[in-house]
Description:
Residues 676-728 form the DUF4982 domain. Residues 92-189 form the Glycosyl hydrolases family 2 sugar binding domain. The chain has 849 residues and is mostly beta strands. It has 5 domains: 4-30 and 193-299, Sandwich (Immunoglobulin-like); 44-189, Jelly Rolls (Sandwich), CATH 2.60.120; 311-447 and 489-620, Glycosidases (TIM Barrel, Alpha-Beta Barrel); 626-735, Immunoglobulins (Immunoglobulin-like, Sandwich), CATH 2.60.40.10; 740-848, Sandwich (Immunoglobulin-like), CATH 2.60.40. The protein contains 10 helices and 50 strands. It has an 8-stranded parallel barrel with strand order 24-25-26-27-28-29-30-31, surrounded by 5 helices. The protein has a 6-stranded antiparallel β-sheet with strand order 5-4-6-11-8-9, with no helix packed on it. Strands 42, 44, 46, 48, 49 and 50 form a 6-stranded mixed β-sheet that branches. α1 (339-351) links the parallel β24 and β25 (356-359). The longest helix is centred in the middle third of the chain and has 16 residues, at 413-428. The protein is globular. 47% of the residues are buried.
Amino acid sequence: MPLKKITSHLCVRAVVASVSLLVFAMAAYASASESPRVTADFNFDWKFHLGDLPEAAKSGFDANAWKDVRLPHDWSIELPYSEDLAGATAFLPGGIGWYRKRFEVSAGDEGKKIWIEFDGVYTNSQVWLNGVLLGSHPNGYTPFKYDLSEHLNYGGENVIAVRVDRSAYIDCRWYPGSGIYRNVKLVTTSPVHIPQWGVFVSTPHVSGDRATVQIQTDLTNGSPEFEALTVETELVFDSQVHGVARTSFRLRQGEHYQLRQNIELKNPQLWDVDTPVMYDAVSRVYAGGELVDMVVTPFGARSFRFDKDTGFYLNGRNRLLKGVCLHHDGGLVGAAVPKGVWRRRLEKLKEAGVNAIRTAHNPTSAEFLDLCDEMGFLVQDEAFDEWNNPKDKRHNYNQQEASPLTKGYTEFFSEWSERDLKAMVLRDRNHPSIIMWSIGNEIEWTYQEYQDAPGYWGENKVEEASYYWTEPGYSIEQIKENFENAPKGEYNLAETAQRLADWVREVDLSRPVTANLVIPSVSNFSGYAEALDLVGLSYRQSMYDYCRRNYPEMNFLGTENWTRYHEWKPVLEKEFISGIFLWTGISYMGESREWPRRGSRSGLLDLAGFESPSFHMFKSLWSEEPHVYMATQPLEGSPYRWDETTNELVDKEENWAARQKWGWQNVQEHWDFQEGAMIAVEVYTNQSEVELFLNGKSYGVRKLLDTSDHILKWFVPYSPGELKAVAADAKSSIRTTGEFSQISLSADRLELDADAYDVSHFVVQLLDEDGTPIRDGDREVTFEIEGNARLLGVDNGSVLSVQPHKSKRIVTSNGQALMILQSTREASEVTVRARSGNVVSQPLKLIIR
């Protein structure tokens, strides 16, 4: 493609390009330390005040009495849960908060371009520098920046002030957090420079022996002189340079230019979910022969495609998307999630065989996507949960009325959606993990004509039509007639979808555009699906064949699905479905309508990152590692009954298992019941058959081929002892426990960097005198901490726990609890113990260096 003109006044005097395919020594690759561009960590030394103080915008305001905070910071998670608040946002308050930071800029930096980057502020932020309002940003999830150059005191002190307004605290359907909850950076560079997100690296052609790497570089000349520029781009991997492109041209003051360079990469190391290899594109800008800017852009060489008939291909290999949806909170840390917390959680999901993530339902952090690149996750990057019409946060899907407290971003959507959507795509487009852009989640249910047309609800309802389990009650012709005759609102959904999709394609054509459709029987013909490259289906496995039959030219996949085997089975049977995204990978805060349920328990992992029963079900489906997991529950109260004719446990309700939606049946991982109680035993496994033993007595063999729900079941009268499930290559056992007498304390890391970011997870497990985990008895545990480390908080993973997080005390759930410590910037040795009554764990030594 030719060089692209961005402004109408661009004057290019000459272009000379050379491309080298040779492999150069490391000496040719200079590190970022040589760069005249300085990207400073701007997270430290902030002051915070909860409450509105309009005078705090003034540069001379005295904030010395305010609280010292380090960003990222979420003030809501630090406050107590309250029954008087709304469950949609986890019974935690919002409010208005102010942040201030004093900093100095060298006199030698005058004349340079200096800007501040916010990766996310929730929400409705305003930013002042030295008393001058720089601007406002209403979206709480998208990144933004402000140019500081004209308002700085060079050689002196400066004050930046940020007001965050979340007084409309029910502005979301889940817990969003409050404050500057993502990273902040200060960038200083030359007037001749690459602007924010100004490098785009893609690999349009990839094969086993070569890859075409296309580098698009934006240039801005803020210098008063006519500049002769050269842009040099090197591809670096494993301390070696694997190709160079150089282009020279001239650019006048105030002009902007977009340059395209191609480099042929021989024998590329491909980015894949199993081998996530990353390269660096090192872009240097020379003006008059002097190095004036340098940007390092990580990227991956990979190819992918979606085939409407045979599914998804990565680097030419057909793969099923084993995906999960994730909200952006991290349990006890709220929305300000350290990278190490995400790493622990993603490692557990990887263990279950997860290979894809949907960022439900808004842009995630840049740091999270870095981890997805590094760890080998495929990502659907999603922009919006609502467009012009608000969703009723108090009643969720039961749409009634949105009050001023609950309208949220919809008040700004018309004015801001283009900027926010493009900001997401521009920031994220270099991540090889991202394979599709999503413009919206379940938007249709805010448009009445979409709800009324298919015959599932309202006056048009057809009695035998069941939204989740059947095809529509009307023919397509009748649905179209219902839709056309229905009264329309102010906004046209299909037209909005087309605008959003077009805006994405203006920035990136290398990935498909999708959305999560909740009423595809209407959206497939209304123009909504036609705006998309991929049609995502939300809980619509009953519609897979309908969509394929009636819309064979469209490309479908499941983008929101229950954590149930009956959601995965159709993917194995229908080649045209590329995969699914489970709701959810990790339980999340909010979206509740009853106290004290602070969140959803639908995750493969719970709020503390502990494994749920569904984790083991999907590990048995998605992982090749031999796996057997056993769970128990009293027969009374279970979904089963004993069939004396067949001597089997069967569903109390016909097709019960095939109709299960969110959550999981109430099973436990213990063998502690009343003597003689009738117990239903479930085993989740990828082994072909399993034999169950109680105290050495066999209760028979069960085979997966004989099941319809991928669950092996036994009926066992309770007797104390050991229950064991044995397969050819794996086994699992649980034992009756004695009295509580020990505490196991473990940590995922015992050495941390003294950078004030690194974290360690300390996990408590209650034990009996034999060291058997106690899952059916809970106690308050106190963490004793000696030494200099930051306590991020405690949690037990239960959605019914509304205990304070900023505490050293926690009542366990299933005998477990979690504490997270974070390093400071000082080297130290920290000793941690856990105590419950007179029982104390062995100490653990945490070294911070």
